[in-house]
Amino acid sequence: MNLDYIIPNDWSILEEGFDPKHVKASESIFSIGNGAMGQRANFEERYSGPTFQGSYIAGVYYPDKTRVGWWKNGYPEYFAKVLNAPNWIGIDVFINDEALDLYKCKKVEHFKRELNMKEGWLSRYFIATLQNDTKVEVSVKRFLSLDMDELGAINYSIKPLNSNATITYRPYIDSGITNEDTNWDDKFWDTLSVSHQDNQAFIQAKTMKTDFYTCTFMQSQVFVNDGLVAIEPDTSSDSNSVSFGYTHNVKEGESYSIHKFGGYTVDRNHDKYELVTAAKSVLNKAVKEGFNTLLENQKTAWSKIWEMADITIDGDVKAQQGIRFNIFQLNQTYLGKDARLNIGPKGFTGEKYGGSTYWDTEAYCIPFYMATKDQSVARNLLEYRYNHLEKAIENAEKLGFSNGAALYPMVTMNGEECHNEWEITFEEIHRNGAIAFAIFNYHRYTGDYSYIPEKGLEVLIGIARFWHQRATFSRDKNKYVILGVTGPNEYENNVNNNWYTNYIAQWCINYALENINTVENQYATDYTRIMNKAKLSKAEMQEWKTVADGMYFPYSEEKEVYLQQDGFLDKELITVADLEKSQRPINQKWSWDRILRSPYIKQADTLQGFYFFEDHFTTEELERHFDFYEPFTVHESSLSPCVHSIQAAKLNRMDQAYTFYLRTSRLDLDDYNHEVHEGLHITSMAGTWMSIVEGFGGMRIKEGKLSFEPRIPEQWNAYSFKVNFRHQILKVNVCKGHTHFELEGDQDLHIVVNGEDVTISPNNLVTV
Amino acid sequence: MNLDYIIPNDWSILEEGFDPKHVKASESIFSIGNGAMGQRANFEERYSGPTFQGSYIAGVYYPDKTRVGWWKNGYPEYFAKVLNAPNWIGIDVFINDEALDLYKCKKVEHFKRELNMKEGWLSRYFIATLQNDTKVEVSVKRFLSLDMDELGAINYSIKPLNSNATITYRPYIDSGITNEDTNWDDKFWDTLSVSHQDNQAFIQAKTMKTDFYTCTFMQSQVFVNDGLVAIEPDTSSDSNSVSFGYTHNVKEGESYSIHKFGGYTVDRNHDKYELVTAAKSVLNKAVKEGFNTLLENQKTAWSKIWEMADITIDGDVKAQQGIRFNIFQLNQTYLGKDARLNIGPKGFTGEKYGGSTYWDTEAYCIPFYMATKDQSVARNLLEYRYNHLEKAIENAEKLGFSNGAALYPMVTMNGEECHNEWEITFEEIHRNGAIAFAIFNYHRYTGDYSYIPEKGLEVLIGIARFWHQRATFSRDKNKYVILGVTGPNEYENNVNNNWYTNYIAQWCINYALENINTVENQYATDYTRIMNKAKLSKAEMQEWKTVADGMYFPYSEEKEVYLQQDGFLDKELITVADLEKSQRPINQKWSWDRILRSPYIKQADTLQGFYFFEDHFTTEELERHFDFYEPFTVHESSLSPCVHSIQAAKLNRMDQAYTFYLRTSRLDLDDYNHEVHEGLHITSMAGTWMSIVEGFGGMRIKEGKLSFEPRIPEQWNAYSFKVNFRHQILKVNVCKGHTHFELEGDQDLHIVVNGEDVTISPNNLVTV
């Protein structure tokens, strides 16, 4: 653990005391979002200390020109950047003509920051003594509305404590912003118009190249002691900003507040010529409702999310805070309303990685959204890939594949590849497997087969074709091999026969063939349509099968384990425990070649296969592989601890499972990887959810039934979670020695608990 | 072959007819240099068509900030760029107020360009009709003086053919130049002063960051019908240029000429405050001698070089032109006078690759310089690496090595690594082997052991330590392995147990141990000094030996060949002959992953080992390996055909040897690799020399004696070459059926011809 200043609390993230060294980390941790937009927890007033300003709009990106040292054929022309959007939260504050700036105050006392996850708001409180000796008490509350997802609201309030004070609020909007992360210092935004009328202001701006049209807007009201006052603003504007000055002579002990409403309207949701009109309508509604009503609505909206998504942990505040933080951030990032959007690894909390969609969505996020939302959300996530199938085929063509073979991009915003390290882009092809697996997983969980004949099968065919073409025949081994890949463990590059990749390749082909057969027999119309489109012959399918049946898997007879890749046993097999602490994290201490030739594993690789395909192996096999690989695993990927927590729980190693659970759930709160200032690890947060539900809860789907093998860490008294399974909601409450099940719905649910069939009737507590 | 416009000629490179599409290629091919500076064959007058302007000063580079997509620990901060230096050749020409510009003329007739290799000059001739209908005959001759290597001279002459004409020559110098190749569009030069006096002009400029101080200078004289005329120049200057205008009303049929002298003085050779003084002294001497005398001196200087270095081929003009072009360009690039300089892969003909020193120097260039110059030149090249030993140790430390292990950089200007692809910089470690091999080769050829106790042994110890630490023990194989490397064949990355690397690693350790022993026994003082410095114990040496003795070499029992690396036989072994032509060159047609998983070999890899260590293997073994690997070799490295030509000759496959010879010798003249416009392949030109001397001539050193197995391609009547062997010069003239040997020197030379001992007495033609 690298940082330890977040105060444990069941429902809130709390920071007390002002430390400029924590500002960037807290800007990440206290980020807020509503699925449509999000922002780092930057201060409203100017701050001259180290800060990382970021406000992001879902789906708005910039295709930054790729930067590489040495160009390789097939690299994408651009790297999609998450774009810092125009600022609407800014409020310059002047107190007796001195700008309020926490970095420059004489004294800052009683500083407290709270991210209230239950109600969905962020607040700040402090007493500051300015250089001019004016002492003020400041309270700020801010939220991004879930109900009106183009709107955010701020209540900023100041009370002079030691004298009367002339206070000016100068709320502004500003499109003259920059990105932290840019390859060529390009300008990303083109401001089209700046306008204002009465107390409303609007900036229309479009992104360069991608031409996303946006309108950033604001309107404010000021209050003295909670009474609305009409102050004619002093308006100032230039080519990319507008501000309104509201000045008032405030008496000592009196409070002077501003309610600022702001946000974005975007052309994904409106005609690009109607963005100002749409913005006016949002502002008019917001002002009419007022800050307090909007805040009440916010609490209600979040309570609905928590009603379904909450996980309680009794007896371990840090663990409780961790899981709620993870669930909260996931819901802030993606709510599943729009199939055009996806789940970026940093959500709305930073710019790193760029792009929005990695295999993380399919491998880690879908189970969470499937179980805590309506199943249409998971289906939206699947359709996102279906909609990108043509581009995945084009992407494969660039790399020399043909005949409809599809290679989904490693990183994308719009279906095109936008990453450019050859060892990742060209070689980390296992991502294709996760995309097929998600289709299988969706059907397994929801029982909804209709997606496959309607859309999924075309994706499965494109993926099967890719694997068929990508495998080559080794005369030496008399088997099909897959050469030159990077597996999930990115601390190996260009290896041959990565077991995970070969295994999922074989599975993809077999799964595609199985579904072609099912669709042929049961969905004749879809079958004809798909076959006409894909021009797939029986002969080609036979070729697929030859490859799948002849696939090679590296195996050690001596160790009785599958080998992560050819030659793994040639390494110096020194475990992480025997590696000096000073050498870690190896990705910060070692040169790349040294990492590559070491045995150290960044995240589950062979074990990822055992996670996906658990029922293909015995528990003894899982144990043998876990014991072989985990000791070499450095968990320097945020996606690593969750899988290991689930498998440790399955193996009944509760201490280990608990340690991994803490690491995954508090990864950002405690900054395990020394990088929280860059943003949060959003996608791995779904892994945290899995480590409770699938790990401790032991939830699986077996033959269409929910199955549980509940376990509980020694440190906890009880924990509970809910899953939405095929339109019924089951609450599971695991205590020491027994588990309660409670069902919302209208018909019995047959589940399996520790191998025994159990029937749960609606609204009837069942204890096992 | 991609281009076919160079006219075959024994001694000259000739182009006839003006084609703007050939301008960039010709700018490369007709490049001139004198070891201290060099330049592309840019026109003196302005040219508005596509052109690549380049003038380069030996040892003057810029550490351009590295550009990579994704930073890896251990990457160098900078990439050394060969710098385009201030222009001194420029002469703006105005004819009746119209600028002469070949791209804009109404008509260009009788255009002819000649690079006279025998005499070392470049000329141009053409008749141009301008837009204003003035028709002029233009003759230009230019050379860079070998005798005065800071000086170049131009004779530019115009004769109006259809009317009188007012002609202005405006010679200039200009430091406001840019590089073709820059990562961040940085400015590379800082102009310090611009001055002129009478007809002389000077620009002092220094490179940014590296602070190389230079003075660019010029002085001109004008002539009418060869009679010097005194014209007061019209001078113009700004912050980074000076020009002098010389205008004359020239009668129809009269010739108006300018002799321009220019060049660079640099702080490698002068005090940085004395550069203008030094430049004046060069100019005064040049003007005093005059263009014609300087040109005569140039012919004499080149005749001395050719006296020793020439290779004649009778009966095959293209082959003759090819080898002379190669020898000429090598001598233009590096003359061996300065141990601070080295041989850049593009010499002074382009910017690509940056840096000056690759393993090319040791693996390809040293034999040429050793045999055609005094042996002190080769020793200078060895000392270059000795002088960089400390930096090679630092470089190894950055990658996690210790205790004096040295890893020489892949690319360098000053001993620091300046390349930044992990798969090259961190993994292409075989370069260390070539550096040790060059020491062995120097001793083998020259018989001069003194270099080893004086300097070489320290290098050998640093290199042996590296290999000892870089190899790891595989329990699985019960052998030492070298994991994660890139061999000479750069179409494989991060492979395990590259045979060439493992073999040369073992050899390096054994060779170091052998020499430690020799120095201990025969050079006690040096031994003590070196051991004190290196702190090398017997125990450490024993550890080296354990690694060398236990080294693993991948081998196929079935094919009876060493495998290029582990797993090579898993590839789809489709030969190049069976690969569609449309797919080649694969480095332009295929994505990197596809290249990597293919069996295709960029240049000799296993065979490079058979070349270096030919006497470790039988001819049958060589043949088996040649037959196995050559069919998969695409020769997309300039360094590939020469080695294969030598080995094909050794195997008596003369047709193949001849084809490879043409490919290596005319690589740039015929633009085999579609890239001559970027510059010439200088280092591989030494390989061309080897393919005649070692290939057809079969020259080897065996037990301290020169040995020959002369062969001759069917297409040739005879060929001859000379070698400087241990201070004696042997001329070898191979005819069909017999070979003549002639010796300059004062004592008998015992050689071996086709396995038989032969004694050659001085100045006595011996025919075998």
From TrEMBL, chains A, B:
PANTHER family tied to this protein: GLYCOSYL HYDROLASE-RELATED, MALTOSE PHOSPHORYLASE
Pfam short name (any one): Glyco_hydro_65m
NCBIfam families to which the protein is assigned, alphabetical: PRK13807.1 (NF010380)
Keyword Hydrolase appears in the UniProt entry: yes
Keyword annotations: Hydrolase
SUPFAM superfamilies reported in the protein's UniProt record: Galactose mutarotase-like, Six-hairpin glycosidases
Glycoside hydrolase family 65 central catalytic domain: residues covered: 324-690
Stated name of the protein: Glycoside hydrolase family 65 protein
